[in-house]
Design goal:
With 460 residues, the chain is α/β, with parallel strands linked by helices. The protein has 2 domains: 335 residues, Alkaline Phosphatase, subunit A; 79 residues, Arylsulfatase, C-terminal domain, CATH 3.30.1120. Helices cover 27% and strands 15% of the residues. It is built from 13 helices and 16 strands. Helix 7 packs parallel to helix 9. The longest helix has 24 residues. It starts with a helix and ends in a 30-residue tail after the last strand.
Length: 460
């Protein structure tokens, strides 16, 4: 199927012309960075949407020179699902990539439900944005954390990469930064410089690694937080400076976002919850874009997700044919090129769905959230409950409106059922061995180092 799609695309005049296009792309993915984890107010109406601890001048620059989204979402409260969604434009639910490891690693007698066993390797049959651009003449590269399986990124369209790395980086160590934050940025700058010299447009993704000490040490003190933020943000600044120095800023779109919110409430307040939960603190993240035709200093209130990047990039290149079947995102171009950040994003479905059928980090159990407009419904499978919130007036998800607005709750619940059925989502099932007297399950953070750990870079 993939070969047929690519072959058909290459026969189209609009797609073949991409090889000579001058539009470039840089996608920067921060790791576990909460919505209020930068020194930029992600919502210009809410002063609490910026950090009083973290200093991020590079993110400030992107906000000053481009557009930020008040309602920017990861695809999942965990890293692997969001990364897979970014590459493919498909949701974790449809990909069956909903977790970072074995789906039942927290369960035995101690949980009422058995989570599904998700796919841990991004199938090579999936079409990625890097493959489409590579086959149209773009130079493509991915440096930093991969974490969607053990297959080399070259098999997914990236001509240069650090290999199939996990949290530990190419050296598979507990704390890959600052070495990797600097090294991956150096490799990214060298890549775009070579692409420019070769006269080729480029697609570069830089995916940063976590700071293991902060993740395991609970809430950081002020000095530690500023140090970590500066480490990554300083390298984002280096990249932006390189684009200026090479004369590429005027032809390059820079996207900046994160794979999920911070753990606990660090960096997520005033939003509720964090990493591992489908509450806003686990899902809503920084989301900024700078590039040609984007008005400076704009704050958009249109909800967007990482699934939207796939069709957005294709649209910005001039690719006028339909995106591959199964892509759930929509082009952000109508919003990006509006002076007030308004516009309508056309997706296959109106609703945004965040499916996380797993126990994780004391998240309250498997759950799914659906967002339509300002209203969000959260279904908890263990409690067999639904809750309804108006995010415009209640971003902290404090006031459950399901009893006051039963018709709206029923409509969203019906839409949620239809979505999960249509994409063939994996669901939790009753645990026949559940013992209510057993102690609660441990909540491990996951494997240190993660998948891969192969050294070196691959340049086929």
């Amino acid at each position: 199927m993939k070969i047929c799609l690519l072959a058909a695309a290459l026969l189209l005049p609009g797609f073949a012309a991409l090889a000579g296009a001058a539009t470039n792309f840089v996608v920067i993915l921060a790791e576990a960075q909460g919505w209020a984890n930068t020194s930029v107010a992600m919502d210009d109406r809410n002063p609490s949407s910026r950090s009083r601890v973290f200093s991020t001048p590079a993110v400030e620059r992107l906000a000053r020179e481009g557009l930020r989204f008040a309602y920017g979402y990861a695809a999942s409260p965990r890293c692997t699902p969001t990364r897979a969604a970014l590459f493919t434009g498909r949701s974790p639910a449809s990909l069956h990539m909903t977790y970072v490891g074995a789906g039942r690693n927290l369960t035995s007698q101690r949980t009422a439900l058995l989570p599904p066993d998700p796919i841990l390797e991004l199938p090579t049959t999936e079409v990625t944005v890097a493959e489409l651009l590579r086959d149209a003449g773009y130079a493509t590269a991915h440096f930093g954390k991969w974490h969607v399986g053990r297959a080399d990124p070259a098999r997914h369209g990236f001509q240069e990469s650090d290999g199939p790395t996990g949290n530990g980086g190419p050296d598979n160590v507990a704390s890959p930064n600052p070495k990797e934050a600097i090294g991956m940025t150096d490799r990214g700058i060298a890549f775009l410089s070579r692409a420019q010299q070769a006269g080729r447009p480029f697609y570069l993704q830089l995916s940063h690694y976590p700071n293991q000490e902060r993740k395991e040490g609970g809430r950081p003190n002020r000095t530690d937080a500023q140090t970590e933020a500066d480490e990554i943000d300083r390298n984002v600044s280096r990249l932006l400076d390189a684009l200026d120095r090479l004369g590429l800023a005027g032809s390059t779109y820079v996207f900046y976002t994160a794979d999920h919110g911070a753990q606990g409430r660090v960096g997520n307040a005033p939003l509720s919850g964090g990493k591992g939960a489908v509450t806003e603190g686990g899902l809503r993240v920084p989301f900024l874009v700078r590039g040609p035709g984007i008005f400076a200093g704009v704050c958009s209130r249109v909800p967007v997700t990482v699934c939207d990047l796939f069709p957005t990039v294709l649209r910005l290149t001039g690719f006028v044919t339909p995106v591959p079947a199964g892509v759930e995102g929509g082009s952000l171009v109508p919003v990006l090129h509006d002076p007030q950040g308004r516009g309508v994003i056309i997706r296959p479905r109106e609703e945004l769905v965040f499916h996380f059928p797993h126990y994780d980090l004391n998240n309250g159990g498997p759950a799914t959230a659906i967002l339509v407009g300002n209203h969000k419904l959260v279904r908890n499978y263990e409690r067999n409950s639904i809750r309804l919130f108006d995010l415009e007036t209640d971003p902290t998800e404090t006031h459950d409106l399901s009893a006051q607005q039963p018709d709206r709750a029923k409509d969203l619940d019906t839409r949620l059922n239809a979505y999960l059925r249509d994409v063939g989502a994996q669901m939790p099932t009753p645990n026949p061995n559940y013992d209510s007297n057993a102690p609660p399950p441990a909540q491990p953070e996951g494997r240190r180092g993660g998948q891969g750990g192969q050294k070196g870079r691959n340049r086929p």
